[in-house]
Amino acid sequence: MRILVVEDHASLARSIANGLREEGFAVDLTADGDEAMQWSKLNPYDCVVLDVMLPGKDGWTVLQHIRRQGSNVPVLMLTARDAVDDRVKGLNLGADDYLVKPFAWEEMLARVRALVRRGHDKKTPTIQVGDLEIDTASKSVKRSGRPIALSGREYALLEYLAHREGRVVSRGEIWDHIYDQADETTSNVVDVYIGYLRNKIDRDFPTKLIHTRRGLGYILSAQS
Q1: Is 87 helix (H, G, I), strand (E, B) or coil?
Q2: Residue 174 sits in a domain of what CATH number?
């Protein structure tokens, strides 16, 4: 899952970005409202963490821009203000959630995860595909009750496919959602990691869950 973090307090921004990356998210980080608006137009984010007080274009303006371009990406607003009027304004402009600084990291992470699930119409942290169980909170995977150990990148790819269960996703879509601006990996790595996943998810089971749609991409489904 790919997150855009827009925060001008340098140490807090690094802390948020590093924490999200440690949790397996791809993260684009900017302190600039204009750049945030440009990136939100170019990249399909799964969530935006947006500070209200920014140099240049403020968070309200960035939020309005995101909504005016027709994007329904979940937006979590961050602010040092605890005024009810500010929270109401953000929600009325299209924010999905609000967090007042200072905040506990665990709460922020829980809110981001909840917004990502909401954005993909998932009500609980667990995704079930056939006998495959993915716990998006603990980042753990089981098949037929058997734990499956995945690397961070393997897990990110599997979770992305699981959020789109039954739908074909192209290599380009996968790339856009699990890699960020700073990643210099070549695009053919998607096929490599699909191979790794198949080896761990499908090899020892009679029902295959990861399918190739030639010329289109990949699909995770209990139906062949």
Answers
A1: helix
A2: 1.10.10.10
The verdict on 89 and 167 lying in the same domain is no
Global pTM reads 0.79
Here the tokens at position 153 are 């990148």
Kindly report, residue by residue over 150-201, the tens digit of the pLDDT.
Answer: 998 899 899 999 999 999 999 888 888 877 766 656 557 888 889 999 999 9
Per-residue pLDDT, averaged over 64-70, amounts to 93
Query: Does 136 share its domain with 214?
Result: yes
The DSSP result for 144-191, as a single string, is TTEE----HHHHHHHHHHHHTTTS-B-HHHHHHHH--TT----TTHHH
Tell me the backbone φ, ψ of residue 18, rounded to 5 degrees.
Answer: -65, -40
Q: Quote the mean pLDDT of the chain.
A: 89
Show the domain range for 49.
Answer: 2-119
Considering the domain architecture, whether residues 112 and 148 belong to the same structural domain is answered as no
